[in-house]
Amino acid sequence: xxxxLKRELIYFWYYFSIQFFQIVNYWVFGMILGxxxxxxxxxxxxxxxxxxxxxxxxxxxxxxxxLAGIASPLCMYGTIPISASFAENxxxxxxxxxxxxxxxxxxxxxxxxxxxxxxxxxxxxxIGCFLCGILAGMLVRHFFKGxxxxxxxxxxxxMDRDTDTNLILRFLKNLWRNLKATGPAFxxxxxxxxxxxxxxxxxxxxxxxxxxxxxxxxxxxxxxxPLYVCGGGTIPLLISWMGxxxxxxxxxxxxxxxxxxxxxxxxxxxxxxxxxxxxxxxxFAVLFALFLxxxxxxxxx
Length: 301
Description:
The chain is an all-alpha fold. The chain has one domain. The chain has helices spanning about 5-50, 60-70, 75-90, 95-105, 110-115, 120-145, 165-200, 200-210, 215-225, 230-245, 250-260, 265-270, 275-300. The protein is globular and about 70 Å long.
């Protein structure tokens, strides 16, 4: 093996191992938490949301709806059929919008991953996603009152894969699916972070995301779209970028536009929205991300 290649592999492993051991515990505990909620708490979460049907709670109904979205362990392709069943039973669309928006942005597993970013970033991510869900519900309720914002006809019934009669096996099977779904993206994120640390000067990251904050917000919101494949995979990148000068506001904008416009999520959302409403969704996500980032960067946190 050429000496230069051997040296670069040693550098890569050095940066990779530092990142890996820094956040692997969050990843493991996140998977365990996600599987526990999926196996033992999922039905309870949805029954609590279903209890909102028929109750005239006004604005205050959006609060538990947004919280239920964050607590939901399902991906978007699992969340939409659940929402479709609520819609069939007459749930108001503002509540559905709050539930689905916050579910797109955050779940229990990703919330635990995000603890690796530090307590301030963790709190901001939770509050930002929670408020984004509430605002989405308010806008749908106000601008689409008496109209159909969602169209669930193209979506079938959700398939529940947690059906094994043995609870331990049910949990282990869910955990295995979780590992297969998040493991490759997690390792890819650490690898990209190691490459960034080795080959991208720290000053470049600071210049791109930190020093000129307005420009940094725009860049973070834009970069979040193509780079966001899996939430766990982006945590190592954010740790590296924030360590080299990325502002907290830019990181927050990235954490909104990334999941909101992840290609798989966009594909699912497009199925249930017409073109006009789909554009409304994208514009809303971008503007909220920029507003949140601006607020955090220009108000001392």
